[in-house]
Amino acid sequence: MASCLRVPMVTASSSSQLQSSGRRNIRAFCSSRSRVKIPVPPINPKDPFLAKLASVAATSPETLLNRPVNSESDTLPYLDIFDAPKLMATPAQVEKSVSYNEHRPRRPPPDLPSLLLHGRIVYIGMPLVPAVTELVVAELMYLQWMDPKQPIYIYINSTGTTRDDGETVGMETEGFAIYDAMMQLKNEIHTVAVGAAIGQACLLLAAGTPGKRFMMPHAKAMIQQPRVPSSGLMPASDVLIRAKEVIANRDNLVKLLAKHTGNSEETVANVMKRPFYMDSTTAKDFGVIDKILWRGQEKVMADVAAPEEWDKGAGIKVMDGF
């Protein structure tokens, strides 16, 4: 029983011999493996991708076996073996129109404002708080740096430095900062009111290039006096200082609106005593905009007959002046 359970003892010399023989066997296996061609399954000879991949595997398998792992590369696996990568084509892909994905971006845009900026569009869709002012001024400077000859389109849907309920959310200098940036640009500036242009936003709408100021048919514009921010527990002297600053901002706003609308300062000051709302037609008459954007209006106006034709059709004869 004991003789059956005896196991031969392995000495240090015998273990070293086993290790050296194992290394030799591994080297021999690796060298023979590199010389033996990897069997390739039958493939479709008309498939260019698989045919190229199979030929590379048959001639130099180490190209596919010893591939570096690079997670930061944008190239798909095994496409780098092509001089000009070309995926296999199916009948559906061949029949697909070339213009189907012509303008589709290869990667998703980082955000929507960046995609609009690529079309030279600056969208002001929030009240004029410091973060909005910073973004708008930076976009205007960037677009001028990209091309100082192409126009810039500013779409406005903002309540200015106040909220829709009249509460002050920003200083009047936020609107003046964007206005000064617009005046410094070399580009033409097309302004479009797409919702509301209230207070300082109305000034930005009127400050566009003459003849390039537009308004949607149902948009609203409104000019009003600047409002005093909440004074809280301020001393009376500080309240007086802040009130004087608001009056100075009001006078500046009146001068700028009179300049861009073509009205006198007295006219603008009178209508600004209370909030002055304007629809698209009133804004055009007041000089805030130049044209109402209404699809089809060019065709309608082109079909309208001249006054002389109207008189002739109505049987009215024009009398010679005395």
The major β-sheet equals: 7 strands, mixed
* Radius of gyration over C-alpha positions, nearest whole angstrom: 38 Å
Q: Label the overall shape.
A: flat
Extract low-pLDDT stretches.
Answer: 1-13, 84-100
Q: What is the assembly state of the chains in this entry?
A: single chain
The percent range for strand residues is 5-15%
Structural class: alpha/beta
Please tally the helical runs, counting DSSP H or I stretches of 4 or more residues.
13
In N-to-C order, the SSE pattern is HHHHHEHEHEHEEHHEHEHH
Mean pLDDT: 75
Which percent bin holds the helix content? 40-55%
Q: Please provide the count of β strands.
A: 7
Distance linking N and C termini = 150 Å
